[in-house]
Design goal:
Order of helices and strands: EEEHEEHEHHHHEHEHEEHHHEE
Structural class: alpha/beta
Radius of gyration: 21 Å
Distance between the termini: 31 Å
Number of strands: 12
Shape: globular
CATH class: Alpha Beta
Number of domains: 1
Number of helices: 11
CATH superfamily: P-loop containing nucleotide triphosphate hydrolases
CATH topology: Rossmann fold
CATH architecture: 3-Layer(aba) Sandwich
């Protein structure tokens, strides 16, 4: 069975600057990414701010056009679709955003925000929509009476559940969740993660879960992809990647996650130096300037490492074992 999402050689460049005092330069936010997401699978996407995670998510649902590469969704090349076929495809791939208040129209009631997708895609009749909205609110753990409320009257956790209900309304097969719990407190975060797990199993959803918090990804994802400067440096089963990281950057990320047992806390790895500018093209490893691997050599700065199998996951490092 083919993956529900197949990304091949995806590149996204932006032209920045170009004013009177600053010449125009090209910023490469996503740099040759290839990955897959299977039906019913959650792929976690982690990395520091500016690594290209959110851009990759937007490219996958074609909210942005790639500079190069392809995204195939359910076997169809999204880049080849005109407006109407793309609109139909987008019904099956929905987004849940980091800021639920910003994602909801402040003048629309909760009920209308959820029903809007039903209207756009012609799902059900107007008479049937209130019952469907009530069903969706109950499914995400909210009182159906909230349909009459406005977004500013609700808590952050309630608004995020409404965002999830709105995404579910059109019966998608893929959810792209962009930092959906980063603005929530710890207890609410756990509840929303539990809800996503339940919904994934109930609806056989594939989920791309974008986060900077490895602990959150560990709780939800089947596999995890680690991004650095627009590239994937390590990807594989979550337990292997987080439990036994092989790329130096992944090791540094994992060392920063607090362990519940202080006696098992790994030694914190503090990276030195500054990451290279994304406006500068490098022939070697993008992590070479900050790498602490004992075998780092001239090859690291001269030749870009490709993903290869290392211990049951793929790692982009010449010296990973």
């Amino acid at each position: 069975m083919s993956p529900i999402v197949q990304v091949d050689g995806l590149v996204k460049e932006y032209v920045v600057g170009g004013g009177l005092l600053q010449p125009a330069t090209t910023l490469r936010a996503v740099d040759g990414v290839s990955c897959t997401i299977e039906a019913g699978e959650t792929l976690g996407l982690v990395g520091e701010s500016g690594s290209g995670k959110s851009t990759l998510g937007r490219l996958i649902v074609r909210l942005e056009e790639p500079t190069a590469g392809t995204v195939r969704f359910e076997g169809t090349d999204l880049g080849a679709l005109d407006a109407e076929p793309l609109r139909r495809a987008r019904r099956r791939m929905q987004l849940v955003f980091q800021d639920p208040l910003g994602a909801l129209n402040p003048r629309y009631t909760v009920g209308w925000s959820i029903a809007e997708g039903l209207v756009i895609h012609g799902l059900g009749t107007p008479a049937e929509h209130p019952a469907r909205v009530a069903e969706l609110l109950a499914e995400v753990g909210l009182d159906p009476d909230l349909a009459r409320r406005l977004p500013h009257e609700l808590s952050g956790g309630q608004r995020q559940r409404i965002g999830i209900a709105r995404a579910l309304a059109v019966e998608p097969t893929l959810l792209v969740c962009d930092e959906p719990v980063s603005a929530l407190d710890v207890s609410t975060r756990a509840q929303v993660l539990g809800l996503l797990r339940t919904l994934r199993e109930r609806h056989a959803l594939a989920i791309l879960f974008i986060a900077h918090d490895l602990a959150v990804v560990h709780a939800l994802a089947d596999r995890v992809a680690v991004m650095y400067l627009g590239t994937i440096v390590e990807i594989g089963p979550t337990r292997r990647v987080i439990g036994d990281p092989r790329h130096p950057y992944t090791r540094a990320l994992v060392s920063a996650v607090p362990h519940p047992d202080p006696t098992r806390q790994p030694e914190r790895i503090v990276l030195t130096g500054e990451p290279p500018s994304p406006t500068t093209r490098h022939t070697g490893c993008p992590f070479a300037a900050r790498c602490f691997h004992p075998d780092r050599d001239a090859r690291c700065t001269a030749e870009r490492p490709m993903l290869r199998d290392v211990g049951g996951r793929e790692v982009a490092c010449h010296h990973a074992t």
